[in-house]
Structure formats: C-alpha cells, structure tokens
Amino acid sequence: MLTTRFGIEIEFTGITRANAAEVAADFLNGRLERTYDSYDAYKIHLADGRYYKVMSDGSIATQTKVNGRRVPAGREYSVELVSPILTYREDIETLQELVRRLRKAGAFVDENTCGIHLHLDGANHTVRSLRNFINIIASKNDLLYKALQIEPVRMRWCQKLDAELVERMNRRQPKTLKQLEDAWYAGYGGMRSTHYHESRYKFLNYHSFFQGNHTVELRGFNSTLHAGKIRSYIVLALALNHQALTQTKASAKKPQTENEKFAMRTYLNRIGLIGDEFANCREHLCAHLDGSAAWRYGRAA
Question: pLDDT, tens digit, for every residue of 273-284?
C-alpha cells in the first residue's frame, strides 16, 4: 500500500519564496538555485540528485503578519512547495519536519485559496484500475468532501466527479487507454494537450496521466502546515490508489452513511489504515464527521 512513489505540492503564504527556499535549503542541506523563470522558482538540489522547488502560484491570496495580524502582501509571498519524487517509508519524516520548519519561519495558509495536490505514480495503472479509481472516488464523494472540509470557494479547482463522467465510463466500459482517454475528455472543447485544461479541476485528475507525467493526481485537500494532517492525506491517497490497483471491480454506488464516522472508520480499516501506526490518520480523517466511530446505530444499551 505504501510503496507507490508520489509527489506533493503544498501552497502557502506568510513568508516570501526566497525565505521559504532558504529555510528548505538549510534544513535539507541542499544547494540553492534561483531559476528566474516565469514562476520565479527556486530549486533546492539534494545530494542524491533530486530537488525540491519553491515557486509562485497565481491563485494564492498573498498575506503576511504584522503585529500578529494578517495583512495583504506582494506576490513574492505566493509560495508553492513542490517535492521531488518521494517514497513513504524513506521520505515522510523529512517532509513532515520541513513543513514544521516552514511554519516556524512564519508560513501559514490562506484557507480560501491554498490547496494541496498529490501526484501518484501511474506506472502500474491499467484501464481496469483507472476505471476502479473513478468509481471509488465517485462512491465516496460526499463522505470525502465532508471529511476533508473542502472550502466551498475552492470547489472550482477540485470539483466532485460528475455523474455524467461516471455514467459514461461505466456505460462505455473502455478496454484501451485511448478509449478511456476519449471518455475522460468527452464534452470538453479545446486541445487536450493544454496544460490548464478544464478537465483537470476534479478531485481525481487524469489530465496529468494522459498529457503530463503519467501520474494520477488527487486535488481534494485544503492546504495545511500541520505535519500530521499532511501525513494523513498522503496515507489516504496511497490507500485509495492501492485499492484501485488491487480490486477486481469497483462500484460507483454510494454507501449508506447514516453514521458518517462509523462508515469512514470501517472504510479506512478495509483499505489498510488499521493499527496504531495509522491511529492519528484515522483521527484526522474522521474528526469532522457526525456520529460514532464505535457504534453504527448508536451506543449499545
């Protein structure tokens, strides 16, 4: 479950890109390079040849703090941290500590404009597993959006999978990647190769798989600089990905969720988030749901 390679993009403000890059380079013992490109990016080169990138993002409402109060700031306070290819067991603790260092340096998120995007290695995906992933996310749309507390203003950039897309995938039942690609882009105008294609703004994004780096992207996360929450997002993404890869078939039918916490807890257990190692992850992912995690129909008499 935790072996798939991934990358993460974390959007924030509060400090400048230059400051964020310096914090990252100091902690990672990396070589800092400013690229002077259209994103005014900085690269932090690691000893193993990988690099983190700190770049601007036009969607972030830039702010800083003056006397403890948030105030508007210039565009140099638009910061997106882009990781290299990571693996969970080897890199999660380093990533979490980097996030803590950035927060300590004064970074914070604007809840209405900052998001987190996770890119999962698509190398092992097939037509079957990609269809599975669509049905898994569609069936859990409502539960996931409430659990993750996706801000309404951010829904434009991480929409729920619409019923037409899900119905089209299951009706056509594509057998080849080309057929699946055609089903994904059906109903959209413009060139598919456009980087900012409208189809990408879904909780589950396949535009990056077909036209980008052959990755499956999950976009449905509010940004945070809470290291534990970021870990829970990564673990959830890896578990969802593993379910899509290993399950023979998945249904888009929505489950009964009269007790949301119980439904989420049992689902997380089913996809591998069991035991003490993932206790904090389960806690974060169930915190905003109603009901009891222990009893489906209320407490025993």
Answer: 999 999 999 999
